[in-house]
Design a protein that fits this description.
Helix content: 25-40%
Pfam families: Galactosyl_T
Order of helices and strands: HEEEEEEHHEHEHEEHEEHHEHEHHEE
Number of domains: 3
GO molecular function: hexosyltransferase activity
Protein name: Hexosyltransferase
Enzyme class: transferase
Structural class: alpha/beta
Organism: Daphnia sinensis
Number of strands: 16
Strand content: 15-25%
């Protein structure tokens, strides 16, 4: 009887893995054949002119995805410029991924889509949207795009959520809260919500297993909990994160988690949004949302920092062996689109094929261990371990 059950389990696992592989293969074939000219989803509206199909976004007033009476933090008249509805109906959603992204970062978003296609995520009951703000033509340091390009991307992939506030580093708190409010309003059935940045690589599958094993409750946030000097406001006026005493007088922030990536629940998101609309605005979004608002909301923190790395080369090391799971679930990409795509594809491969964890005795031969604190771009030197240094990818 036991052998029969084991045989049934193995056969079921084989069928499921084959089904997911077929989904991914179909997606890859679609990409190869389309050469960028195809649309994953039908257009909301289209017209025929001179034999060409022109796509236009749906008017904001014509759909429930574009409410006219929303507020956002201290914005009394908030509207969506673009919105998506991946969680429509009563379909099961184990994880909703909300990715804060800059309009000019289409290459990063496309790396996500290639590494973890929507069709593959759907097989695991995972949904994903990208959070954008209104294009800021005067913003330096970013690739410039126009709104038409964003609308075309949205119509091709149906995964853009764009708010009507200007794209700015000091407006990230608006984008962050918009994502949480979107989760509560448009995907309330989600078991868990992952908020992450578009330049961060995350193994969704290992992370989801981890927080489930931690028994994340309704009013908790799981992430890299800040400690020590990380809780001190930066008073250096030359710093990107300078905070004056007028903006924030206390000498320490409340406990908060890194905004790179964290997991929470819709129940917690609802409370965070509610307090955002009755509390003073603060522009550093992870401190504001997961610290100040969490303290007001009674949301507690679960520390999963051991699964984070600040070293991009640790993720590159993980990609050297495709048959073992990475010890790190979350880390920086240095805006390396190839790394983001490869890391996410590897995480999907290991989910399908049940990759074992890396054997402790094998680790020294797999990676260069970094022993210097990260600089601005996390580009680090390595030290030789066991007499061996493997070139970086």
């Amino acid at each position: 009887m036991v052998m029969q059950l084991e045989s049934c389990f193995l056969f079921s696992r084989f069928l499921f893995a084959r089904q997911v592989r077929n989904i991914v293969s179909a997606h890859q074939a679609w990409v190869t054949n389309c050469f960028g000219s195809c649309s994953t989803f039908p257009a909301m509206f289209s017209t025929e002119e001179n034999g060409l199909r022109h796509k236009r976004p749906r008017p904001a007033s014509a759909h429930r995805l574009y409410p006219s009476n929303w507020t956002l933090v201290n914005l009394k008249r908030f509207e969506f410029l673009l919105n998506s509805d991946p969680c429509s109906g009563r379909q099961r959603v184990d994880l909703l991924v909300i990715v804060t992204s800059h309009p000019g970062h289409s290459s990063l978003r496309n790396a996500f889509r290639r590494g973890l296609p929507t069709e593959a995520l759907r097989a695991f009951y995972i949904k994903r949207v990208f959070l954008l703000a209104r294009i800021n033509p005067g913003q330096s340091g970013y690739r410039q795009v126009d709104q038409t390009a964003i609308e075309e991307e949205h119509l091709n992939y149906n995964d853009i959520v764009q708010g009507d506030f200007i794209e700015s580093y000091h407006n990230l708190s608006y984008k962050h809260v918009m994502g949480l409010k979107y989760s509560a309003e448009f995907c309330p059935q989600a078991e868990l919500v992952l908020k992450m940045d578009d330049d961060i690589a995350v193994d969704l599958f290992q992370l989801l297993n981890l927080v489930r094993n931690q028994s994340l409750s309704g009013m908790q946030i799981a992430g890299a909990v800040m400690a020590g000097d990380e809780l001190n406001p930066v008073r250096n006026k030359n710093s990107k994160w300078y905070v004056s005493r007028d903006d924030y007088a206390p000498s320490t922030y409340p406990l908060f988690v890194s905004g790179w990536a964290y997991v929470t629940t819709v129940q917690a998101a609802i409370q965070l949004v509610r307090h955002a609309e009755s509390s003073p605005f603060f522009w550093i979004d992870d401190t504001y949302v997961t610290g100040m608002l969490a303290a007001l909301s009674g949301v507690k923190h679960v520390d999963i920092r051991p699964r984070f790395t600040v070293f991009v080369d640790h993720l590159r090391c993980c990609l050297r062996n495709h048959e073992t799971a990475c010890d790190y679930f979350i880390g920086p990409s240095d805006d390396d689109v190839e790394l983001i795509e490869a890391f996410h594809r590897q995480s999907l491969h290991c989910k399908i094929n049940y990759c074992p964890p890396t054997n402790e005795t094998d680790k020294p031969s797999l990676c260069v261990i970094t022993n210097h604190p990260p600089n601005t771009y996390n580009k680090l030197e390595g030290r030789i371990i066991h007499g061996q240094v493997i070139p970086l990818l």
